[in-house]
Amino acid sequence: MGFSVYRAVLHTSGKTREDILRQSAPSNLSDAEIADIIACYEAWDGIEVILTQSFSGSGWSLCCWTLEHKGRAKEAIYLMEQDSLFGTYINMREDFDRDWDAGEYCSDAMMHFNDNEVEILEKFSADSDQLPDL
C-alpha cells in the first residue's frame, strides 16, 4: 500500500489572537508569544509546498517546499525556532543562518497544517516516477 504526496499552496494568513489561543494547549501564551506565532503563520502564507496527509488522522504534514520559495520557508522556519518551549535557535539568527547555509539545519518538529490552510494543486503517488521537481 503506497501513500500520496500533494503539491499545495498554504493559506495561513489572517490568524487572530483568539485563533491562536483556541488551537494552542495550554493557552497561557503571552502576548509576545502569540505575536510570534501569528508572524510565523504570515510567513508561511502563499508558499508552495509538498505535503502528506497527517498520520494523526487530520490535516497535513509538511514534507518540503519548492526551490522558488526556499528563502521564504527559511524565514518561516526561523520564526518557528523562536518558540519559547520548542525553539532551538531563540535569538540566535547567525547560528541558524550558518547551520541552514551549511545544510546542517534539521528541525526537531514536524509542521502540520489544517485542511482550511491548504489548497491542493496536484496529487502524486509516492511510488510514482511522476513526483514533482523541487
Structure description:
The protein is built from four helices and five strands. Helix 2 packs antiparallel against helix 3. It is globular, with a radius of gyration of 15 Å.
Name its key features.
22% strand, 134 residues, 5 strands, 5-stranded antiparallel β-sheet, alpha+beta
SS field, number of helical segments? 4
The H/E string reads EHHEEHHEE
Relative strand content? 15-25%
Give the fraction of residues assigned to helices: 25-40%
| Radius of gyration over all CA atoms, rounded | 15 Å
Shape: globular
Unreliable stretches (pLDDT < 50, length at least 5) are none
Q: Report mean pLDDT, rounded to a whole number.
A: 87
Number of strands: 5
Strand order of the largest sheet: 4-3-2-1-5
- Span of the ends, CA to CA: 25 Å
Largest sheet, if any? 5 strands, antiparallel
Structural class, from secondary structure content? alpha+beta
How do you describe this structure in short?
By secondary structure, the chain is an alpha+beta fold. It has helices at 17-23, 31-44, 70-80, 93-101; strands at residues 4-10, 48-53, 60-65, 112-113, 118-125.
SSE map:
Layout: E1 4-10, H1 17-23, H2 31-44, E2 48-53, E3 60-65, H3 70-80, H4 93-101, E4 112-113, E5 118-125
Antiparallel strand pairs: 1-2, 1-5, 2-3, 3-4
Helix pairs in contact: 2-3
